[in-house]
Design brief:
Structural class: mainly beta
Radius of gyration: 16 Å
Strand content: over 45%
CATH topology: Lipocalin
């Protein structure tokens, strides 16, 4: 019985937060063509920090980042042609891949990203 409790506790601990620390690259298809974005994540417990970079929108700092099991979420602020806008990301981690939905509330658009771990 003791062994079973130990195994259950160990399993609960290991599924508490996906390890997404590192560099990921993703591509999304948009009405303006493909957009590539690099994500550099740092995880501390369930807090997600880091930054993202794209050729089209430049560098953005991750805000309000959270890791909950295999789910991650965060926001970034992008600058496009002098206009700032918030983009909210929600993703599901599956091994070395994350499927993201990025919601751009200001223009009412949602974009799907698939990011793969680089390092």
């Amino acid at each position: 019985m003791k062994w079973l409790l130990c195994l259950m506790a160990l399993f609960a601990f290991t599924v508490s937060a996906a390890d997404v620390s590192g560099t990921w690259k993703g591509t999304a298809q948009t009405p303006n063509g493909p957009v590539e974005r690099t994500f550099v994540f740092k995880v501390d417990g369930n807090k997600l920090t880091g930054e993202t970079t794209s050729d089209m929108f430049g560098k953005s700092t991750i805000e309000n980042g959270k890791v909950d099991g295999d789910n991650i979420s965060f926001s970034i602020t992008v600058n496009f042609q002098g206009n700032e806008g918030k983009v909210d990301y929600k993703g599901k981690v599956d091994g070395d891949q994350i499927k993201f939905t990025a919601e751009i509330a200001a223009v009412g658009q949602t974009v799907e990203y698939i990011a793969k771990r680089v390092s």
